[in-house]
Automatic annotation (TrEMBL):
It is found in: Cell membrane. Residues 20-164 form the Copper acquisition factor BIM1-like domain. The keyword Secreted does not apply. This is Copper acquisition factor BIM1-like domain-containing protein. Residues 187-197 have a biased composition (Acidic residues). It is a lipid-anchor; GPI-anchor. Residues 176-209 are annotated as: Disordered. It comes from the Eukaryota. Residues 198-209 have a biased composition (Low complexity). GO terms for cellular component: plasma membrane; side of membrane. Residues 1-21 form the signal peptide. The keyword GTP-binding does not apply. It holds the Pfam family BIM1-like_dom.
Length: 231
């Protein structure tokens, strides 16, 4: 059995890693990542759109993240326009779900809600939200919708889930910007970020995606999805 001194040394070494556990959008792109500002609503400290927007198929495509948390709530919202403000993220494209397991996670078949009319050439921004020990964590990717779908090989190369990753549905109305104090987070310390959480709570979607959209992106992460039976 390791001595108390050894255990304490290991915990001290791990503390900075646990405190900095966040997430990154790895596909189709990201405005950027800031260790200090990732809790800032709406885009983790990056208020300006990407210089080069990413083409994104109207028929649906993946959003791949590298999640450093072992347990977190996840959500994707959308704002239309060239330079949206925080108040513009009013469309849920992936309602909040509970995700287990760190590393690669894919939101499959992400698209605009069925009741939102968008056309090829129109600009939008996807906002990915996860829960963390600070409260809500945010990152954004700016896209231009296109009629051109991804090929099967392109899709598969950008949609990967780490071994053991799973998701399940949560109570409707649950917000992904909850802190670990409000919702258990495997590596959080329970310290919520009130400013970021309150901003997101007042600005997150009033236009919910239908259940079919939830099933669509979940099936896109085939082999790792759980909890569909509750829908």
């Amino acid at each position: 059995m390791p001595s108390p001194t050894t255990v304490l040394s290991v915990l001290l070494l791990l503390a900075p890693l646990l405190a900095s556990a966040h997430f990154h959008i790895t596909y189709p792109g990201s405005r950027g990542f800031s260790e200090e500002d990732i809790f800032d609503y709406p885009c983790g400290g990056f208020p300006s759109p990407m210089a080069e927007r990413v083409p994104f198929p109207l028929s649906g495509g993946p959003i791949q993240i590298d999640n450093e948390h072992t347990e977190s709530l996840l959500q994707v919202t959308m704002a239309l326009g060239n330079d949206p403000s925080g108040d513009d993220f009013v469309f849920d494209v992936v309602p909040t779900v509970q995700e287990y397991g760190p590393a690669e996670f894919c939101f499959g078949d992400v698209r605009a809600p069925a009741d939102v009319a968008v056309r090829a050439g129109e600009n939008a921004t996807f906002q990915v939200i996860t829960s963390g020990h600070e409260g809500g964590l945010y990152a954004c990717v700016d896209v231009t919708f296109t009629d051109t779908p991804l090929s099967s090989s392109e899709y598969d190369s950008h949609c990967e889930n780490a071994t053991g990753v799973s998701v399940e549905a949560v109570e409707p109305g649950t917000m992904a910007n909850m802190s670990a104090h409000d919702h258990g987070d495997g590596d959080g310390d329970g310290d919520g970020d009130e400013e970021g959480g309150e901003a997101a709570a007042s600005s997150t979607s009033t236009g919910g995606a239908p259940a079919a959209t939830w099933v669509g992106w979940a099936v896109g992460a085939v082999g790792v999805v759980g909890g569909l039976a509750v829908l």
